[in-house]
Amino acid sequence: MFLVSFQTSAVAIAQIFAIGAVGFTLVHRRIVDEAGLKLLSFLSVNIAFPLFIFYQILLNFLPDQTPLWWCYPLVNIGLTLSGLVLTACVCAVFGLPIKARMMAGASLHNAGYIPLLMVMTLPWDPLNRQIYAAIIMSIIGFDLCLWSLGVWLVTREQSPRMALKKMLNPPLLSMMAAVLLVFLGKPLMSETFLKPVKIIGDSAMALAMLTIGGNLAMTKLKNIQLPLQLTLAVIIKLALLPLMALITIVFLKPGPLISFVLILQSCMPTSITLSIIGRHYGTKNQDFINQCIFFTHILCVITIPIFLGIYGHYSHK
Fold first, then answer.
1. Least crowded by CB within 10 Å, which of 96, 165, 292, 305?
2. Residue 168 lies in a domain
3. Is residue 317 part of a domain?
4. Once rounded to an integer, what is the mean pLDDT over residues 233-262?
5. Measured between alpha carbons, how far is residue 14 from residues 24, 180, 209, 290, 294 in Å?
6. Cα(242)–Cα(264) distance, integer angstroms
């Protein structure tokens, strides 16, 4: 379990950084400027991500074939809320002010790309197809948190009130539309319509990685802002949340599938999309979020295998 998860997570992180390096180089060499990054984030938030979410839910959200399907979205909703509570508690212990950007970096994780890539490396048998579908359903809960609470946290310092216009954004609306269509039996969903949706949606991750790479080029990682807060956010994200997930699994003993989804999602680094949201909405201070993304993605190559190894040892007892 340790070696397999280490190799898979390392490959996933390497792929993320490889594409991100392209965006970094384009900005570092001034081929793309801040206006170009703004355009990339606009395309991501308003076109690519909505279509990606829409297509994946239509294709993989199968409530009639998955008993208790509603539990899986609750996994990521629960993890997000747990991250917020943990951050508030840690800040209280250290006597720190509760910063929205710290709460975002510690509680919102990379729920899609790395977990799905890890599952896709497994033999494609019926059990692993079920795991893949369960992760897709858990992403529904994460997207609900990311495109509502996440948007508010990232933009809170410049706009303290929850603006309805920001909450009703294209990714959240596309998710709601796709879920509704699934329950209506997917009417009028022809291949002619879905093919271009898939093609454009598949570009979402590439656009996101290019943007985060460009954002990192504008972030001075050596000048770490709020080093204690950053360190604590990384510890919460990569250690305390997975530990809480393990304790939950030990004491509540949920089924094996939901247990695996819970521990896998709890190990993930800070969501790349937070950087896209920051760029899209013109957040003034994006360095803290970008630093959270960078350091959690570097360190999770070690922490993911450790916690999955502990879970694997416990689950086979």
1. 165
2. yes
3. no
4. 92
5. 14, 36, 12, 17, 12
6. 8
- pLDDT of residue 118 exceeding 80: no
Residue 63 lies inside a defined structural domain of this protein: yes
CATH number for 243: 1.20.1530.20
Percent of the chain with pLDDT over 90: 26
Longest Cα separation, the chain? 57
CB 309 within 8 A of CB 2: yes
What's residue 221's pLDDT?
62
Reference 118, options 305, 303, 248; nearest CA is: 305
Q: At 109, phi and psi to the nearest 5?
A: -120, 170
Strand partners, 109: 270
Q: What's the pLDDT at 165?
A: 65
Residues 6+ apart with CB under 8 A from 212: 20, 23, 272, 275, 276, 290, 293
In a domain, 67, yes or no: yes
Structure tokens at 142: 């994460």
Please report which confidence band the pLDDT of residue 239 belongs to, taking 50, 70 and 90 as the band edges: very high
Q: What does the block give as tokens for 124?
A: 């494609």
Query: Which of 108-117, 134-143, 171-180, 228-237 has the least mean pLDDT?
Result: 108-117
Other C-beta atoms lying within 10 Å of the C-beta of residue 168: 12
Per-residue pLDDT tens digits for 136-170: 889 889 988 988 888 889 888 776 666 666 667 88
User: For the chain, what is the domain count?
Assistant: 1
For residue 174, give its domain range: 2-312
* DSSP β-bridge partners for residue 270: 109
